[in-house]
Input
Amino acid sequence: MPSVTYISATGSETAVAGFAGDSVMETAVRNGVPGIVAECGGSLSCATCHVFVCADSVFPPMEDLEDDMLDGTAVDRESNSRLSCQLKLRDTDIRVTTPETQV
Amino acid sequence: MRTGTLIIGACQAGVQLASSLRELGDTEPIVLVGEEPHAPYQRPPLSKAFLKGDATADSLTFRTHEFYAEHRIELVTRERIVSMERDSTGGVATAQSGRRFEFARLALTTGAIPRQIPFEGSELGGVSYLRTATDAALLEQRLHTAQNVVVVGGGFIGLEVAAGARAAGKTVTVLEAAPRLVGRAVSEATSAFYLAAHRRRGTRVVLNAQVSRFVGSHDRVTGVELASGDVIPADVVLIGVGVIPRTELAKQLGLAVDNGIVVDSSALCSDGLTVAAGDCANLPNPSLTPGGIERLRLESVQNAVEQAKVAAATLLRLPAEYSTVPWFWSDQADLKLQIAGLSGGHDQIVLRGDPETEKFSVLYYRAGQLIAADCVNRPLDFIAVRAMLHSGQHLPADRADDLSLPLKKLFLPAVPVLIGK
Output
């Protein structure tokens, strides 16, 4: 089971056990991890599950719609920004930082 | 002495209400009771990913069992509350099984059920409704072996299912009684686009359709007969003609009910004690933009979540007022529709982009003020309009169709800037 570590904007860390195939967003929401809102439940409609992916965590490149949506996040995007509903876990551990706000 | 909160309806709003009570510091017992066999799960994917086999009730659950345990939220499934009584100190709810749930505080997140139409032949096998994961599993199974699919009702659910079935190679017919699709939610421009888009993808859409009955043999549906006498072959029929709010328990409690459980802007019911949230509630229009319809029901994830947060605060006697920019989405085939704001009462429409390209937005104005937008495959327009409606900025109608600039570059501040001499 991959472990997912969520680092808040203030630096506090929450680690939870995830399942391969689940998204980084789903894993956060199911476990009540703060910092990821995910208003639309992962249908790429709301841009409220923005995360900054840490350098040691690797995901496949994003598709155009995610790229577009990232221009609409509450905290401005950076080069390592992703929408966590699109980040599917595999068997490696993952670390992401959550922005100060999602809405 | 009765303690704790009973939340009836283990759904999006119910889970949010329970979670919010804990976030607000409530330490008393919380019982979340629902009649379905599953832990609470997301409903929107039921008409989309679920039917493709990309999701299950398990994969759609909102929270882990550990979450409920850790937050001391007692989740009770398979219990249908059938009778209620309460006074100002609390009350008791009784399930069909006879199990009793005492409470000091009560929240109703009872949701809605599909509107049923008593067509002749409705009892035939293959005639389906879609609301729960159980409904979806049955529909998925039926679609698997079906070739001819008929959808009665050209609203979001019907069109989402139609798009999925068509993409899977089925012969699909949508029958809509009104002169246009999604008439309750979008303008004629957006309706016309969806009509063309579904037809382009090979779905047959019949407007002004009058269904007279379902025909079948050996207890299985085989077709849908129209008033014209035409029979459209069908192995599966999905009826998606709206929902009816579940108000039975509210009525037992003597609460005001009028197209939903009547609540105020704090999600408080007419007894001044009970709260209600989500699809079941009839609420004052929470839109930040002035004007528009006075009261309504909102059937959306966003409303379930935000109203539930307000309801949780109200139960704890914390001041809370529900105001927001309502928003909705619908995924049909590769078309992502996102709606920000309520377009009722608009007197001007601006088209941004060409519907032929399947990437465009319809912007709605009332008295010169932007009030809503339907955005098709233009997520940035959606996000910009939502943000704008929140902040009260202005988007001049005569510039809104300028595709050379992103919408957010076209906003003007809410208060006119006075340029001094």
Observations:
- Chain A has a mean pLDDT of 92.
- The CA atoms of residues 32 and 99 of chain A lie 16 Å apart.
